[in-house]
Here is the input.
Amino acid sequence: MKSSFENTLPKLVIAPGFVLGFAFIYGLMVWNGVLSVTASRMLPNYDEFVGLEQYVKLWEMDRWWLALKNLGIFSVLYVGGAMLIGMALAILLDQKIRAEGWLRTIYLYPMALSFIVTGTAWKWMLNPSLGLEKLMHDLGWASFSFDWLVQGETAIYCVVIAGIWQSAGFAMALFLAGLRGIDDSIIKAAQIDGASLPRIYWRIILPILRPVVFSTIMVLSHLSIKSFDLIMALTGGGPGFATDVPATFMYVMSFTRGQIGLGAASATMMLATVAAIVVPYLYSELRSKPHDR
Amino acid sequence: MTAKSLLRGLLYAVLLLAALFFLAPLYVMLVTAFKDAEEIRSGNLLSLPSALNFDAWRAAWGSACTGTDCRGLQPFFMNSVVMVFPAVLISTLWGAVNGYVLSLWKFKGSDVLFGFMLFGVFMPFQVVLLPMSQVLGWLGISSSIGGLIFVHCLAGLAGTTLFFRNYYAAVPKELVNAARIDGAGFWRIFFRIIVPLSTPIVMVTLIWQFTNIWNDFLFGVAFSGADSKPVTVGLNNMVNTSSSVKSYNVDMAAALIAGLPTMLIYVLAGQYFVKGLTAGAVKG
Here is the structure.
């Protein structure tokens, strides 16, 4: 009797948490899907089923296309930039550097800060008349002009700069951990064979780091799809809709424009994008690692 | 020999330059927060303030206006304090128990359950915003700090479960089996054997959750009411309040105040923060 109780107890203990957790993740996901096929505007309206009308409307909106285009630009440059800088810093830091601990701390601290805080700081630095521009004028470069933040075509690149600043240290930390896990004897052997250092990195170390590179791309790209705070703090989606992304689009439609059905539809599209990236990854991660010891 | 030392010098130069790039915003925030309006106009981003002027800090904390509310950042900061501690503690404890079961009391299907839970770490929270605000309304906790605590506990559950499960996976099963033979039950093993082993992962999870919840903006802006806005929302509203004169010094002081708790934790317990980052990033 006791042993069967002992066997069900663990299940009983985690059941409430899992029920709530699954309700939160999958229940609300489905619920959001339901909202997206209703005519909900200011308030949820479950009586009026409109099928895929909200999705059709969404894909006919120029603003949604612009949000997608911005997300594309942002994601590619942000993920690529943070990876490149992170990788470079990790390789350089791995050369037996004095004060490595200090440098690592400095490179990584932006990750501890809220995007709202750093967005506020970058907004001030990128301010067209007082920020960087004034600094350059004071340094004697009178013709320097930097108004990217207020120009529709360039504002998104300001978001990219601030995003890379925030996340490059994170990529560095992951790569550095990967580099430290590599057996020194492999490198020594290659050196004895006469391979140059760049060649060793390119042909031996990078292939070993492939799983870390892959994880980093995964995490950074899902962060970029979810990015909301940084844009709200830095540009608020503006000027106009110039830095709108799906996350800000969803928020504005749902909470300020009274277009709940449309907001839900855009959230579904975000979910689909993240799922397309993450589900195969999670599946392979969980399969490749036998957890039973 | 000289070529080598030249290369070495170059290496340090690049690393130092990178350090300057990462430190620049912090430096700019600090010097700006100590200037007055006149100094901001006459100086530039990098120029040092002529004196340590705390007016902007005082204003940011206690008298700067957000719309018509001129109580500074203080009420928002306090909301965050009240919100963050229960949310962090509950989600950490909850994750510990989940992780304990999923690694040491595995049952048929528990790995699959965990796999489904893991998606919660990556899910874009936009997808839960609309239904959740209705749920909070039904529970009678919409626009309240209680509601935010509830949402943060649920949103953090997948992550904390992941941390503890991975950590407990390394606990030798023999330890648990021996205890069972001695007659120890589920809870006794947890409190007597597992909890004492957990200090490192508890630290990681506490710091990770604290940082995430303190820095959250999305739930704060979507679910809080006039009296329950967290500090990130307060800061954003304060900075974007349209007024004729922009007080950059007050904005910077406010940003530093809002960032102070997580920065302090990072300085004091950075290694746990880094472990959390890497554990969260690399797999289940």
